[in-house]
Specification:
Structural class: alpha/beta
Oligomer: single chain
Mean pLDDT: 97
Bound molecules: 5-O-phosphono-beta-D-ribofuranosylamine
Radius of gyration: 16 Å
Helix content: 25-40%
Strand content: 25-35%
Number of helices: 6
Length: 206
């Protein structure tokens, strides 16, 4: 049974999808710690409702980004966390954190990487960019986190149709429902089963 630590900043619907999938069985994992970068994030309520240990660790309370990241590392290491799941976490992590959990941090991005990703592409901006580009298909990507924003090895992707009268909000909802909440729990399951191997920067399923 692996222990998952989640980093959140907002609503936590992806966290919820992972919790629900674990409840259904077949995923040998447990979410045992949830850390939010913001007070009042609804994701914390979701953790509390399940009796999952949770806390707020805010970047602005630290003098340097490295100190903040070391605090996060300490929190998760003290709890023997095996996998870090970024679930709508709005802070870009640096090497202090990433090196400590190499190949054990995963993220979901609401587009088909390498499209509409990288610095500045978050939240509704991703979907605005997709609509402005006129793509007919978008989707979501689960990937390992490396020091390059949204550029780590891709684990799973799922495509979603873009419709002519979509707004960023409508498209965001469709991408969540049809892709994010499906592939994030699936990626967690594959990781828990030790079925993900990274070979030359490419994820192979074993
Ligand atoms: C999702 O769109 C996810 O792809 C992105 O941030 C959003 C988080 O939503 N990384 P939630 O907090 O999981 O509801």
């Amino acid at each position: 049974m692996i222990k998952i630590g989640a980093l959140v900043s907002g609503g936590g619907t992806n966290l919820q999808a992972i919790l629900d999938a674990i409840d259904k069985g077949g995923t040998d994992a447990e979410v045992t710690a949830v850390v939010s970068s913001k007070e009042g994030a609804y994701a914390l309520e979701r953790a509390r409702a399940r009796g999952i240990e949770n806390t707020v660790i805010r970047k602005k309370d630290f003098n340097a980004a490295g100190d903040y990241e070391r605090a996060l590392v300490k929190y998760f290491k003290e709890r023997n966390i095996d996998l870090i799941v970024l679930a709508g976490f709005m802070v870009v992590l640096g090497s202090e954190f990433i090196n400590e959990f190499e190949n054990r941090i995963i993220n979901i991005h609401p587009a088909l990487i390498p499209s509409f990703c990288g610095k500045g592409y978050y939240g509704l901006r991703v979907h605005e960019a997709a609509l402005n580009a006129g793509v007919k298909i978008t989707g979501a990507t689960v990937h390992f986190v490396t020091a390059d924003c949204d550029a780590g090895p891709i684990i799973l992707q799922k495509a979603v149709e873009v419709k002519d009268d979509d707004t960023p909000e409508i498209l965001q909802k469709r991408v969540m429902e049809q892709a994010e909440w499906v592939i994030y729990p699936e990626a967690v399951k594959l990781f828990a089963q030790n079925r993900l191997k990274i070979v030359d920067g490419i994820v192979k399923r074993v």
